[in-house]
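Marked as duplicate of an earlier ticket. Keeping the data here for the record.
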Amino acid sequence: MRINLIFLLLFSATQTIWSQNTFEGTISDANTNEPLVFVNIYLPELEIGTVTNENGRFLLENIPNGNYKIVVSFLGYETYSITQKIPQSESLNITLTPSAIEMEEIIVSTPFHKLQSENVMKVERKDLKDLRTEGLVNLTDGISNIPGVNNFSTGIGIGKPVIRGLSSNRVLVYTQGVRLENQQYGDEHGLGVNDAGIESVEVIKGPASLLYGSDALGGVLYLNPERFAASNTSEGNIRANYFTNTQGYSTSAGYKASGTNFKFLFRGSISEHSDYETSDYRVTNSRFREQDFKTGLGYQKNNFKTELRYNVNRSKIGLPEEIGEQSTNRTPLEPFQDITNHIFSSKSTLFFNNSSLDIILGYTYNDRKEFEEHHHHEDDEEHGDEEHEEHEEEEEGPALHMKLKTLNYNIKYNLPKLGRFETIVGAQGMRQTNTNYGEEILIPNATTNDIGVLATSHIHFEAVDIQLGARFDHRTIDISNTENRSFNSLNGALGAKTKLFDNITARLNFASGFRAPNLSELASDGTHEGTNRYEIGNLDLENEQNFQIDFALEYKNEHVEVFANAFYNHINNYIYLNPSGEFIDEDPVFLYVQDNARLYGGEFGFHFHPHPLDWLHVETSFETVTGQLEDDSYLPLIPANTLNNTLSVEFERDWFTKGYAFVKYSSTFDQNNVSEFETNTEGFNLLSAGFGGTVKLFDNDLDISIAATNITDETYINHLSRLKPDGIFNIGRNISFGLNYTL
């Protein structure tokens, strides 16, 4: 029935009379009226753009009829946006106002594709190229630099995003426009996505169930893939980074080209790291290897555009348990994970005269193998060395082997704009199967079916913008040889944005969210080797249901930005693991139980770039979150309060362009608000610095970057480190050297 509906919509679209138009205009400086060269003009709905010529003029062809958002951006000027009707009645003349504030980008993770300054919901956005300048080793390491976002880590090879104290199945990750499913319930199950080929990351902090359904109760991490090349252009690059601490490296090479209608890209990357080093020792088996390949094919003509993308990621990740062998080998020891992630996605849009239909289909295939450390019998020692070596070389199967296959769909219809109303209706869902192949079974074979319907509107008034919507979801979980469970939830959201004064913007959002219990929480029954505990599920668990209030204030002028975000998040039926006091096979038994919980806190900061020293930037941010159960006891794995201070400069020279340098001092405070089964964690201070810029090499750009983290080589343990119970330190001093050559 669903497939027939899609084909019916596609057939109906072919009945539309195709109309093609040109879109043109000029861009100039608001103060001098001088034309501006190489200004970016971008139409996010069509995902096409161009730049102005030496006369400040631009021209885009083959634009279908409709109303489209136009975004104009240029370094050193305020980003400009307007909704333009096509065909246009006259050439568009735009003036840009000089500003030291960074350029704004379109927010993709929210439904109406607006600039952040126009958004009702507060969304954090960062370019990956900016995060790389800070010396990130992996993707989650870089994301943790965003206020309100932390990293629940197992060494440096495994990281899970934590948004305002919530993680795992309470944070939904999207990549290539589809939800990422990779057994994310596990503490030691990382993202499985490489930063190569990721252009930017957006973070929705708070319940986003209205937009994404179950598992978005705590927020959404939205990874935007790199864009295709502009029409009739091509581009390639080679990037390499070396890390002194792990004697590791990451390399990436990619190429993309676009014609009038067709476009394609591909990118491959390899990363290898040995055990990371502290000032006292190397952390045995924290090593890992990762191979990643991404490719995409796009087509656009008349009122139709589509793109297909594919990503395969293969990683072997050591699981550190104790300090033992000290080496710089890169091959993981047992226990280790051997994981392959396949992500297929299809994104198509049909444009009608004043509306459009988006169809996104995705398929993810997660093949997870976990190899345990085998202890051979004592009589092995009685045999000769040669026979022992042969025994070691025997291929051993994985102790845990699971395959998770997920087919998901997301269909949205953008209704014609009606007066002040922009409205979207849609349906989302997935079908997921989990199958076991290993010696041990932690969670049983099962099939999950999900479907949700939603409607949301953005209403424009003179002094205020309002966004509201509602959604209904139904999920069924069919567990092999066990009873089936079904879950329903109705959720809504209401938000408003207004300017209190000329330079002060206020946002107030109310949202409910939900999360259905996952398969592990319902039906696990076995030893989870990565966490050394025996977990027992609970088939009687109910939906987690939450309600969050989020209030944001932002002051911005040409040289000062100040922000304050506060939130209160109440969760009914919060699911967590509780030790029973018993042991099975020498492992402590943990049971899944429920209780009401609350989290509250916020992020605060400012950004100062004084006049006339626009090249100087002073930034400070503070983040805090507290999590408690209904009896006032504290939730586990809540990040400690953090204060970040950054001083940076930008400079230009004839031979060294886009130059920058920074010094960052981060203070993480004591975490004494801990659960009954945690210990307190001492605070620590980390000093980082870096610089870089661009030089010309054979008439092409070569970007150079050097960054140093934990310069003082401080020994510390982060409260969100899974190695904390073993007293194992986080990474010590690390210096990274990066080169990026554009072909």
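See parent ticket for discussion. The chain has two domains: 20-137, 178-380+396-742.
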